[in-house]
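Example record for the data management plan.
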Amino acid sequence: MENKKSIPPIEVVEKMSREERQKYLDGRLKDLVAYACERAPATKARFDKAGISPSAVSGIKDLENLPILRKDELIELYKANPPFGGLVTVPMSDLKRVYVSPGPIYDPHHESETFWRRQVQLVKAVGFRKGDVVVNTWMYNLVPAGLMIDETLIRAGVTVIPMGVGNTELQVEVLVKLKATGFYGTTSFFMNIINKAEEMGYDVRKDFNLRLAIIGGEMGGGPIRQLVEEKYGIATGDAYGTADVGMIAYDCSAKNGMHISEDVIVEIISYETGKQVGPGEVGEVVVTPIDETYPLIRFGTGDLAGWIDEPCPCGRTALRITRLMGRVGDAVRTRGMFIHPRQLQPALAEFSQIAQYQAVVTRPGHRDELTLKVELKSEEGVDKEKLTEQLIKAVTGAVRIKLDRVEFVAKGVIPELHKLIIDERVY
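Corresponding structural encoding:
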């Protein structure tokens, strides 16, 4: 890889102009590709199969010529060439830990300092600092999440309480008695702990010392983060990552999209053309982390997001992506547009009278029709005509095609576990 003395500090990279960042990332990518093809046989084989010389990659745009590495292919590589599928650049004896993810995939512990500096930059950017005491509730056994976040927080100067998942009563006692200032975990588990605390007679505002909760890992967490901030006075943030590549993007203080971590190359790829898309378009998040240990080049996350092109008030110049809009395969093409579950969730979160909803695409004639089925918590006091007008306006604005009708259904018609968008067209 490139001489480390020539790599600017992360604080410098954070403020680079778009042109400077493009040049910087193009150079880092060129070095990474050469390094990975020399030391990771499976990566070299991918380039050979695609008929691409590593030297032909001079920038991010050139990545379009290399097929995306998907999870299924990753699993097959691991099965065919254990233990690491020919993707890891160092022998196992050089690794501190090996994790086991579903597949099975044996994820190496990252030894790359480039990896750790971006992890540390991320937790500092979301708001943790030296002096914080943080309860880490990500899983510590088998998968990388718990220990990865643990080490990141420690490197950032934070005191970590390694709780892992479960034991909500004990979690409450630890948060109270150790006066933890921070929490890191999933949105739903955090709310389980908060609810348990209230059951135990605690006043979260008075008895907890929490100032910041980084809660995510699940779709639809925006309304919950808003509730946490307004009801309990705890600041919240979110970070996006995967077990394979670590952290990819993060909230800043502006909370208007997520900044891409420094030293991570992200492409948003159209699921129609396979090409990189521009601002305002939605596609799959494809990631190439600058990582000397585990250089996954063009790894397809399966997540859907879009670019945000406007400058961020926080002052960081890193590109931003929207919050995730669902998974590849969840989108339904309707009247030439793809609509995604994640588009519906924020649009309908404001309607407290709704218990459940489901969008249904049909084709009774020669035109796709979009219907929103709605189950109300109670019909008492609800003006259905007015609510219908409001829902049509909200959904049409969110998915960018006109909602044809709203259908109010009885309780139980929409299953407890259901897709937010279903396709019932018969051609």
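Summary line stored alongside the record: DSSP finds twelve helices and 20 strands in the chain.
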